Amino acid sequence: MNTSVLSLLLVTLVWGATFPVLKIATAQLSGVEVSALRFLLAALCMLPWALRAQRRAWRDGAMLGALVLFSYVAQAYGLQFISSNRSAFLTSLNVLMVPLLGVVFGNRLSLRVVLAALLACAGIGLMSWDGGANLAADAATVAGALGYALYVILLSARAARHDARSLAATQIVWMAALGGLWMLGDALGTDRLQTLGSRLNAEILWGLAYLGVVATAAMLFLQARAQAHVSADKAALIYAMEPVFAALFAWAWLSEGLSLRAAIGAGVVVFAVVFSEWKPAARASAT
Fold it and tell me: Most distant CA pair in the chain: distance in Å?
């Protein structure tokens, strides 16, 4: 595997730890509040690069940032009502959405990638499907997956045009600005802003710091740099490892059990990612 693929695997590993953190945070905060606060923290980290960014980076950053903001808020909203495992499964549907949407954007479908995507979704289904349906939360999570699939496609198309730090910084500043406005609008007519401080305990504050500084600021920069060299459909397959890492973190961090079915599903996902990267050795030409 090349360096860009390994970078995206690292991004996915870090994201795998966000599901339990988000689940804890959304016990006290709304999905909009969690997203706005994490992006405000991330924007403070990336502000020096945002101030030096060119106009075209701000233009592409606005479009990409709006898609990520919608995706994250939809996912955080869903996590208020469904389990993190179910959320991980529904979010992972972007693995199939990316190659299918890519056709709309003029990309060609690779049989290997389609087969790998189907395998990955089957494996994630074995790992994560646990019932507990909630129509509104499920629909929001699937909508978030669709938004993220569009983001992955557009990022692969635009990343090579920009310095990775500038593109990540402008995305994050747009996300913070739009998220802050969304949070203010969502709080109108309620006491949510007045009670925000009392709903933030040490555990949630540490979680927001991880979400903002590590999972958002650092990983969006790494993602922007790596996806300049990785196709959208292959990147989506790598991101299918997210629930695998999430399950491993839950097992190691929260002492949650990993059933035989879940372990088999994790193995299927890993195989799908390796299969997408595997290239058969060229046959020696006949002499």
Answer: 81
> What mean pLDDT do residues 262-281 have?
69
How many domains does the chain divide into? 1
Rg (Cα) of the chain, in Å, rounded?
A: 19
Q: CA–CA separation, 64 vs 82, rounded Å?
A: 27
Residue 286 lies in a domain: no
With cut-offs at 50, 70 and 90, classify the pLDDT of residue 282: very low
Residue 131: φ, ψ to 5°? 75, -155
The answer to whether the beta carbons of residues 233 and 108 sit under 8 Å apart is: no
Alpha helices in the chain (DSSP H): 3-16, 18-25, 31-51, 55-78, 84-91, 94-104, 111-128, 135-158, 164-187, 192-195, 202-209, 219-226, 232-239, 242-253, 260-277
* Residue range(s) defining the domain that contains residue 40: 3-277
